[in-house]
């Protein structure tokens, strides 16, 4: 994909006094040929303003992680490699559930970053599905206004193609949570949800589906969803869930289904940060 400036422009950022056109919400992605990244001097900072359309500014944390940090993008590139190149004899997972033991572990932040990194790969498209029907946060992270989504599909039988929207990142689409339902556990545990997971996994050969799940010990439907996907990515926040809670979740899901563990809010030391400075070249692609 292009440089970060192109992504931010599509996300509703621009110089003061400018307005951007509303991005297309068509589900069909555009296939762009990859171009080599050239090292360039940092562009002068400009004041960022919100455009007058359906999309607005990204969540500040996500914006900083993608735009201002060389360390975080490299971590997610490593995670991408781990997912796309599993051990010999294992298949690449098409459907991945991202969850945590308890709330406020940063699972949605991890989901968003993983989706961006997968979409920036040479051959993959990514679809993020917000399954946290109680406390949805994926769509707002990308500056997308409230719109119908997963709950509306499961409850009202709305056509799926009308609900999936393209984000401002090439090759990255989002299925929002939709209007909050009164029965989230029943919807996500339904046969229709199971059929949806299977349909999304088989519809596109080059697309990875990432499900942002409710926290494991808050919503019973997280257990059901974990049995329908190819693998589970566990987010653990430093100072968050305790070892007994994490172990119980591993026992419930099955360690063989855990494709990775992300330690969130881990404090890096000066040596680790200095080692990442040499990767500034790669940061230009964000």
UniProtKB/TrEMBL annotation:
It comes from the Bacteria. The keyword Transferase applies. Keywords: ATP-binding, Kinase, Nucleotide-binding, Transferase. InterPro entries: Bact_polysacc_biosynth/exp, P-loop_NTPase, Wzc-like_C. One of its GO terms (cellular component) is plasma membrane. Signal peptide: none annotated. One of its GO terms (molecular function) is protein tyrosine kinase activity. Residues 1-54 are annotated as: Disordered. NCBIfam families: eps_fam. This is Exopolysaccharide/PEP-CTERM locus tyrosine autokinase.
